[in-house]
Amino acid sequence: MITKFNLLSNSPEEILNYVDGDYSGFNTKEDAIDEIDYLINSDFPNGLKNIPNTVILYRVLLLDDELDLDEQNLGIHFTSYPKMDRGFLEKIGIWDNWYPDESTLYLLECETNKKNINIEETISNRVSYPREEEFTTYYDAKIKIINKSIIHKEDIKIL
What is the model's pTM? Predict the structure, then answer.
């Protein structure tokens, strides 16, 4: 029986079934299985192997006012790379909702313990939304902002 504690020691096929078998982000089940295989056999920051005890993750937030930033509740969706290209911002639903006169885009560099990464949800999200390099944390995870920067729309590259 698969449990959260031994999830990564199973085959990619078993893991896919455990995370509800949803592979909607891929054309075929085989593609999803290949993604899981890559994820469980690749080192951090690309995959789930050899995650250091202290993890640096990134969060993108579009805020109307900096005062809206709740440092105690940053959300659960993070990425392992600080990439800021238009394709990524479109994929996560920010680009079309970003009006620089009305809102500001922040890139948060955050630090947390690897125990705060929800492996099950990370795999499920990676299969549903491939190539976002997302790491999903637990809702009650302790996450510390170590750097906050403002991203300007005119500086975003089109990829």
Answer: 0.89
